[in-house]
Amino acid sequence: MRWPQRAAAMLLTTVLLVGPPILLVRLVGWPTTDTPRVALWQWVHDPLTEQNLTLMLMVAAWALWAFIAYLVTATTATRLWAGVRWLRHLPLPTPWQATATGIAGAAALTITTPTTPVDDHQGTTTSTTTNTEHDNAKQADTADGITVRGGWLPHDIADQVTAAAGLIWLRRRRAYRPSRPRRYAENAEDLAALPATVVAVQSATVSRPSPPSPAPAASALPLFGFPPTGVGLVGPGALNAARGLLITALLATARQTTVVLVITRRAVDMLLGPAAPRLRPGTGLRIADNPAHAAALLAAPDTASVLSGPADDGRPPVLILDEPPPVSLANILTTGVMTVAVLGAWPQAPTWHVEADGHTHASKENTGLRVCVLDPVATADLLTVTGHLHPPAPDTPTHPLPRAQAPRQTTPHHDTTRSGKRVLVRVLGEPTLLIDGTAMAVRRTAAQQALVFLAVHPDGVDSHLMAEALWPGLPGHRLTGRLYTTLSEMRTAVRATTGIDMIDRTGDRYRLHSEHVDVDLWHLIAAVDHAASTLLDPATAWRAVIDAYTGDLAAGQPWPWLIPYRETARRHVLDAYAALAATEPDSKEALAYLQGGIRIDPYNADLHQRAARILNDLGEHAAATSLTDRYTRRLATACLTHENTHMNGRT
């Protein structure tokens, strides 16, 4: 709230507190016990006398004022107490930190200049903007890991989740088969956004300026953070730690096929809850009926080879049991060639007491160690990126598909009554805000992100949905004010330059003014919809789609929420290239169209197959082989070879 609004609110509160008592005292006097009383029988016989009505009105007026005074007093006391609690929890700097802060402050005062430098590439200014830019990282990124809703992950595990999520999108790009152009966003069935926990981890990792150094305690125990002789897990975070071990092992399995995870069926029920029936065995994962069955699975021919030693990265097979194994079996399991975790106390092995935040104690060798902890919902979300969890039933979707509809007005009419300036939002390629063709610096990185978000929602979007997408993982009560500040500053800056309102707010819904603002993405949407419906000269309409696509949506930006929308736009252009190639009688021209589509998406398998087929038909066998070899090397570089397809599943 800005200072004029604060001043108005304080003035209104003062008037409500002081005004009514002054009027009541002047008109009817102070409420005293000397007020004339009315006998009960007289009140019942004739209650509507002038004296009685005056008395009732006076009592009601004083009671209303007392209620208002109580509300103001209670609200003020609550805010004061919140401030006191904040001050009590405010961390005070150590002497070294105070010295470093003083030196940094002196240096800042020494080099400060009257003008503020502007980074045209990022569209950000001032050190205050930098603090806002990385606020999400401060909330979700701790010194040794990342906190998300439902758990905590070490940095290396979070990076593996982000890499696995990236592979899912690359696999979707590889598997897509371009077809005849359809209306915009009609082909988004397999572009469902990834689960909320995955998106929060992606956002935290991409916003981290640089990978931090590994924590010494974590590096002391390389075997998934657990001792090689087995461990029993107790305490409020025991099950959460076992879930973290489950995800850690399956992520390692994606990189090292020698890592095998065996878990008992009852342990699966304890760890996953309602999602347990959807867990499916696969490469690197076995589900046993009991500890004896688990040992038998580890001794099976396809897994026995891993017992000869740990994997290439020093990580051994993993066994998660719901109860301690028999003594005879425990002697075999605690030999140090596998990581064994029991959900409860285990007399034959050390017992770790795990706190809810992942810190462990009550054991000499793990003092100060913090392990990955996850709740059932976060675990189920992360299992989707490993490919070991069946998707939910179609009638109960957990993650809505991205929706992008055509704007209400495909050719915006620009308001030139006040300034005559033209506002263009360019989001295909590098996001840019243009005023009469001149780029306008956007002060906040969040404002640039919000501008793209509004561009992909031409009909507007709810503020809560927008805030959760821009700042995933942050508490909901902090998002509304942050979004309001971000959009208000951008709207004020554009209004000061052009005299028009670029962003319209109706209740809790924001949208870009289609009458005042032109967006290049909206022209692409209109071209796609026209190509899908036209019956006359469709080839010209398909070329219009290609011409309207001037680059990837917000090219180079790693925002996780953006990926489904970016892929939607890319697929429509691939459809146009494929349609032109399919209807082109000249093989060389058709090949040129396919090569254009390959430049847009070099990971698409269908376009490469069509291009290689045409090259072979033309007798260019060497060129076809070269094209196939380059594509194979590109897939291998991206870890998309057939050896890793077990993670694909139905994600």
Structural class: alpha/beta
Give the terminus-to-terminus CA distance. Answer: 44 Å
Mean pLDDT: 77
Q: What assembly state would you assign to the polypeptide chains in this entry?
A: single chain
Tell me the total number of β-strands: 19
Largest sheet: 7 strands, mixed
Radius of gyration: 32 Å
Strand order of the largest sheet: 7-6-8-9-5-10-11
Description of the molecule:
This protein is of the alpha/beta class. The chain has 4 domains: 3-33 and 47-84, no CATH class; 149-399, no CATH class; 423-519, Orthogonal Bundle (Arc Repressor Mutant, subunit A); 521-647, Alpha Horseshoe (Serine Threonine Protein Phosphatase 5, Tetratricopeptide repeat), CATH 1.25.40.10. The protein is 50% helix and 10% strand. The protein is built from 24 helices and 19 strands. The chain has a 7-stranded mixed β-sheet, sandwiched between helices. Strands 15-14-13-19 form a 4-stranded mixed β-sheet. A 3-stranded antiparallel β-sheet has the order 3-4-12. α10 (238-255) runs parallel beside α15. The longest helix has 40 residues, at 50-89. The relative contact order is 0.10.
Which properties best describe this structure?
651 residues; alpha/beta; Arc Repressor Mutant, subunit A; 4 domains; seven-stranded mixed beta sheet; four-stranded mixed beta sheet; 24 helices; 19 strands; 10% strand; flat; disordered C terminus
